[in-house]
Specification:
alpha/beta; seven-stranded mixed β-sheet; two-stranded antiparallel sheet; 9 strands; globular; disordered C terminus; binds S-adenosylmethionine
């Protein structure tokens, strides 16, 4: 099958069935080294690999999901409003980046997947913030930033303790790129204990959260691809607004942060704000 034929065949398939080992050739050598195990990989059994293929083969489909899967407003409000420089890693199509551009003199968005960078650049250009924000290729463990570059170094739904998606080297690299007195923030963390063991504090914002799809038809289509266990209930109940409990994942309502350096070195005065909300279990996706 040619690539367009494969694309047509997978239209209605759930994420873990959309791609095969034949698609792994889309990765650059740098990407393959991080995402594909030496013996090869199968996206039908490794859903993390399937997500990476999604970003490169169907970036607009990812953008459709990310644009309806919105962050808790408390998370966005918690972030500093007046920073000199912000660096975001794993920026994707800019779910968080678009919230950051008003908050700093300079924003650098680092994103390894070329197709996602293109979408993000298009969105930044439309928002007329192209001058203030730069989009660069890079990885958690190899950031294109000098030591102490930013007051805030942040990742949203991207960092994990796994080496290919951050790990020890990636966290050390984010901290290297942070100014003494600045802050590293991991939004929607998936391994809170791992981060707290490394000196991070946890903040979680309460209240019900849902994904608001554009229509019931879109809810059926996108849950069928990304949350197949929930698709039957979405269809049966005619839902357009789908609570995260139905999707079966923890909502994007939490973060872990670490202020670097000594208290006298703080570059973001009167920040961070006091912690809010009860601790909740870690994200399950
Ligand atoms: C679930 S998406 C989140 C994107 C965006 N931050 C958002 O919230 O919509 C995960 C992102 O992490 C990026 N990513 C994966 N591996 C990475 C790595 N080793 N270094 C930096 N980013 C990475 C992916 O390309 C993708 O953009």
């Amino acid at each position: 099958m040619t690539r367009p034929e494969r694309a047509a065949a997978r239209e209605v398939l759930e994420l873990r069935s959309r791609y095969t080992a034949a698609d792994l050739g889309v990765f650059t050598a740098e990407e393959a080294r991080r995402y594909v195990s030496p013996g090869g990989g199968d996206p039908r059994t490794n859903v993390i690999l399937a997500w990476e293929l999604l970003y490169r083969l169907e970036p607009e489909l990812y953008e459709r999901l990310a644009s309806v899967e919105r962050l808790h407003p408390g998370v966005v409000d918690w972030l500093p409003r007046h920073a000199d420089r912000i660096a975001e890693v794993g920026a994707g199509t800019g779910r968080l980046t678009m919230e950051l551009i008003e908050r700093a003199r300079q924003v650098v968005a680092v994103e390894p997947a070329t197709p996602l960078r293109r979408i993000l650049m298009r969105k930044l250009a439309a928002a007329e913030h192209g001058g203030r924000a730069r989009v660069l290729p890079g990885f958690f463990d190899r950031l294109p930033l000098p030591d102490g570059y930013a007051d805030l170094v942040v990742a949203c739904s991207a960092f994990t303790p796994a080496a290919g998606h951050g790990g020890e080297a990636g966290l050390a690299e984010m901290e290297r790129a942070c100014r003494p007195g600045g802050c590293v923030v991991i939004i929607w963390p998936n391994h809170i204990d791992w981060l707290t063991a490394r000196g991070y504090q946890y903040v979680c914002f309460p209240g019900p959260m849902s994904v608001e799809f554009g229509s019931h038809a879109e809810a059926v289509e996108l849950t069928g691809i990304f949350y197949p266990k929930a698709a039957g209930e979405v269809r049966r109940r005619g839902l357009r607004t789908v609570p995260f409990e139905v999707l079966g994942i923890n909502p994007p309502r939490d973060l872990a942060f670490k202020v670097l350096g000594r208290p006298g070195e703080r570059t973001l005065p009167a920040w961070p704000p006091a912690a809010a909300g009860p601790d909740l279990p870690a994200r399950t996706r």
